[in-house]
Amino acid sequence: MKNHAVTSPREEQTARVSNSLSSSWIDQLTPTQRQQLQWLTAHQCEVQAVCVKPNHTRLEVIVKPHILLVESAPNVREAFEVVHRLARYLITKSLHLP
């Protein structure tokens, strides 16, 4: 079962994330997802993948200034779909974009 969480970075010690990522998990993304990752970073989001156990990855996205999105899944692509969708919603809502 998936784990969805939306928390404040102050409440979450793992909020320290960086755009300087290991390319290994990025290589697993589809070309469309790589474009979506570029969109997130262009909107000042920080993204990191953390291996929490064998064959299970946790993706963390900070949507500045306050929100940390976390998704855990065995498949990086699946986890990315969730965090991208949530982050994009929050960004477009705050900017009043269509």
TrEMBL record:
- Annotated organism of origin: Deinococcus peraridilitoris (strain DSM 19664 / LMG 22246 / CIP 109416 / KR-200)
Q: Where is this region: Disordered?
A: 1-22
- What protein is this chain from? Uncharacterized protein
